[in-house]
Amino acid sequence: FFSAIAVDMSRPDVFVASGPSDVVLELVEQSVDMKDRILAAQMSHGLDIPIPLDPTFAGIVEAWAMGVSWTELLTLTSVQEGDLIRLLRRVMDVLRQIPRLPYVPNDRGVSTALRLQARRALTLMDRFPVSDDVTYTVSEEELMEVSNEGLKTDMKLPEGQISGPMGWSEGEVSEALAKEDMLFDYTAEESD
Fold first, then answer.
1. Which residues form the ATP-dependent RNA helicase Ski2/MTR4 C-terminal domain (predicted)?
2. DSSP alpha helix (H) spans, 20-80
3. Residue 55: which of 112, 14, 93, 103 has the closest Cα?
């Protein structure tokens, strides 16, 4: 969903073979009313700040988070590599900010579950060539909350692509979660 608000490019001639999941489309639909109210409030105060809400690239972002290789991802869209990297990094930046938002109990603030999901998604997306130098260290408490399920999505990938929850086998997830002081940086090769 965050790709729908982080997108800064809109081209009518863009080819995207991987559409957004039903969950993302539903969230975008629910957000249209809020977008309209914010735009109306801006207009009443003489402001004209665009509010992006475009799910065009959401399927590409979901595919990347699910473990599709960079080469495979490039076959799913006509967007140039640099533009695609910029889009994925913008989404990662939004995901990185979510855990830092204030939590207000008994309010409509950012829940613990959303914070954890944002970190999970960031972990899955933070790999070469999109990876940057910002990593997270997982606390003991967060390790206890993480399950082998990965991120929940109803997105279907084309036949022959990755399988398992978010592209990882259960063994890979278990192994990664068992590591003490696990860094959210899966771009580095493990030494044997």
1. 7-134
2. 22-44, 58-65, 70-75
3. 14
